[in-house]
Amino acid sequence: MKKILIIDDNKQNRLLIKMILQKKGYCIFEAESGEKGLSLAYEKKPDLIILDIMMPEIDGWEVMKRLKKNNKTKDIPVVIFSALDDLDSIDADGFIPKPVDIEKLIQTISEVIG
Which residue from 16, 3, 38 is spatially nearest to 98, judged by alpha carbons? Predict the structure, then answer.
C-alpha cells in the first residue's frame, strides 16, 4: 500500500483529500504544519507528499527546500496543493489547484506514483 503525506494547515482540506485517497487504497498521514510535516516525512518516508504552500510559521516553499536537502526525503515526489496560480518556477512533481478537483487529484497522484 502506497503512503501519502498531506501537509496543509486547513483541517477540512486534509480530511477531504484523506477520505478520497483512502477510498482509492492509499495509506494516509496528515500534518497541520510544516514542522510536523517534516517530522512525519523523515519518520514515515511516504511515497508522495501533498503540500500546501501558504501555511503559518514554515510555509510550503521552506518545507520543500528542507525535504530536497535531506538525503532521507530528497527523492520523495512532492505535489503542490495551492490556490496560488503563479507556480511555474516551482520544482514540484505536480500541481493540484484549490479548491480540490477530485478527478485532477486522482489523475495527478496516479501519474506521479501510480
Answer: 16
